[in-house]
Task: inverse folding
């Protein structure tokens, strides 16, 4: 759907975060005389009124009746279309779209495929994969945009031009690509396992929404992880016009031990790359497959991964205090992600901080895996902390790791420090690690994982402002220095 197609129709915006404000600016740029209604929270209404748009009406209650009064509602990604009021309005004929759909709609006139556009999604790894994709393309001198869920709404770049687009999409946004009216040239899916079940209303719907990027958006090329069982089982669900390129298997980009391979060709050892964990180096394989799908020489660009700057809050080393390394993995919102983080530090003595907002995810597999290779200390915290703690109590006694409980992050940090100090340090290997990899969102305590990660940095004695910026957002022809 193009923005011009909304002219003269009854249109509302729902949400006044950064995505909502970007949608308003895009609408005003294309349709300066279009009346609009904004549904937002009471705390946002004053800011919306302050912009002085005489054609913008602000309301603070998005009921089913009010939503159904509009033909189109441009919805911010965090607002679930499965909320009762949204479902009722949709049944009454209201069309809900997001800013991502509008951005793609503006490219529908360019042809069937949006050339140079590579979309990346996945339960975990999508941000690093998207940023690394932009980094390598820029290393080759290609004018590349880095945008989307990673921190820059696409609509903020509506009238900007780029040779390539590296776009991160959350499961909240993938369906928008399918309704945008144009196919992405490349779609990458790193993995699929349960997350955001409250927004989607269940695991089955989450998987369907996540996979919409390749099942409904009909990309020209789908780059898929051969090691993921849900992706490997896609079979005939993809459009016949979509070419599939697998990574993580012997005939494509893959790792053998730590050596990067393209088929039988060995390129280089990846252990020295600034990509902590084998899963992140696996993401490099996804990136290289996507670069080839875009028509570039991936083997020539691969060595530029050595100059990649890791993203904040994703296994981010903050530094050392009193011989203890502090690692911020606040982005971790599933037990699966926490297990991947622990694997990175399996040779270190680790105090792990887990827990947060309880979305009902099953932690039993995590607890089972702690019977072998558990960290030295696990501190549970947050709303689901007691539930995780109860699962781990019998395991801790059997496996011999220290288990502590805390109410919040501050108490958890103190407990981790005390527990590490109370037991003798290893004389072999590297020093101790305090690892925040909570496996749960931060809702209710912090605004988001960024705020939680910043607080963790502060509690460790580090400058929160120095660890928070995502490098390279926007459009550039070379990488930031």
Result:
């Amino acid at each position: 759907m193009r923005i011009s197609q909304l002219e003269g129709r009854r249109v509302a915006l729902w949400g006044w975060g950064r995505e909502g404000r970007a949608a308003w600016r895009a609408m005003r740029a294309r349709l300066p005389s279009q009346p609009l209604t904004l549904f937002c929270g009471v705390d946002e209404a004053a800011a919306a009124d302050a912009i002085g748009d005489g054609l913008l009406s602000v309301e603070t209650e998005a009921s089913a009746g009010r939503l159904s009064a509009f033909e189109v509602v441009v919805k911010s990604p965090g607002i679930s279309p499965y909320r009762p009021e949204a479902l009722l309005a949709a049944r009454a004929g209201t069309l809900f779209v997001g800013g991502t759909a509008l951005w793609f709609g503006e490219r529908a006139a360019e042809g069937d495929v949006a050339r140079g556009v590579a979309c990346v999604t996945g339960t975990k790894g999508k941000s690093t994969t998207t940023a690394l994709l932009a980094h390598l393309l820029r290393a080759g001198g290609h004018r590349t945009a880095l945008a989307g869920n990673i921190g820059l709404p696409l609509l903020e770049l509506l009238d900007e031009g780029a040779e390539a687009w590296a776009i991160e999409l959350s499961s909240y946004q993938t369906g928008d690509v399918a309704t945008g009216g144009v196919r992405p040239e490349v779609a990458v899916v790193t993995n699929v396992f349960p997350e955001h079940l409250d927004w989607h209303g269940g695991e089955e719907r989450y998987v369907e929404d996540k996979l919409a990027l390749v099942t409904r958006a009909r990309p020209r090329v789908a780059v898929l992880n051969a090691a993921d069982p849900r992706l490997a089982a896609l079979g005939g669900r993809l459009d016949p016009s979509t070419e599939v390129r697998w990574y993580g298997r012997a005939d494509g980009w893959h790792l053998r031990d730590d050596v990067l391979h393209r088929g039988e060709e060995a390129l280089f050892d990846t252990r020295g790359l600034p990509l902590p964990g084998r899963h992140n180096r696996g993401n490099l394989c996804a990136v290289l497959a996507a670069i080839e799908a875009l028509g570039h020489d991936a083997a020539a660009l691969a060595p530029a991964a050595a100059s990649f700057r890791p993203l904040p809050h994703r296994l981010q080393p903050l530094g050392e205090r009193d011989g203890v390394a502090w690692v911020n993995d606040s982005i971790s919102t599933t037990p699966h992600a926490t297990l991947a983080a622990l694997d990175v530090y399996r040779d270190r003595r680790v105090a792990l901080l887990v827990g947060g907002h309880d979305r009902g995810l099953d932690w039993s597999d995590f607890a089972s895996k702690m019977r072998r290779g558990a960290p030295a200390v696990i501190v549970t915290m947050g709303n689901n902390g007691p539930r995780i703690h109860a699962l781990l109590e019998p395991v801790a006694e059997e496996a011999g790791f220290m288990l502590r409980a805390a109410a919040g992050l501050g108490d958890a940090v103190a407990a981790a420090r005390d527990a590490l100090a109370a037991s003798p340090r290893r004389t072999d290997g590297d020093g101790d690690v305090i690892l925040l990899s909570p496996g749960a969102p931060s809702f209710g305590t912090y605004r988001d994982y960024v705020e939680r990660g910043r607080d963790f940095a502060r509690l460790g004695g580090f400058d929160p402002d120095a660890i928070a910026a995502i490098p390279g957002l926007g459009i550039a022809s070379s990488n930031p220095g």
Notes: The chain has 17 helices and 21 strands. The mean pLDDT is 93. Residues 135 and 478 are 8 Å apart (CA to CA).
